[in-house]
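Appendix B, Record 12. Input sequence as logged:
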Amino acid sequence: MEYKTDFLLPKNDFLVGMGSVLNIAGSYFDYNYSKSAADADKKALISDWMNVGDDFKSAKKVFKKKNSNKLCLK
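Logged structural output:
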């Protein structure tokens, strides 16, 4: 599973960015909102720590693959 670090930001692409140039009303982008600041912080912290855990798992796999002949792991 891939965790995002930008879930509170709008999901835009090139065409949305180009359309925003003509934005006169000022409310062109839709943001992902949370019920409260604490809820947003909770989501962000969970996502960040899940990303850290995934990074450790990936690094462990690479390390084992590169050093399998030197390690006594099963």
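The chain has two helices and no strands.
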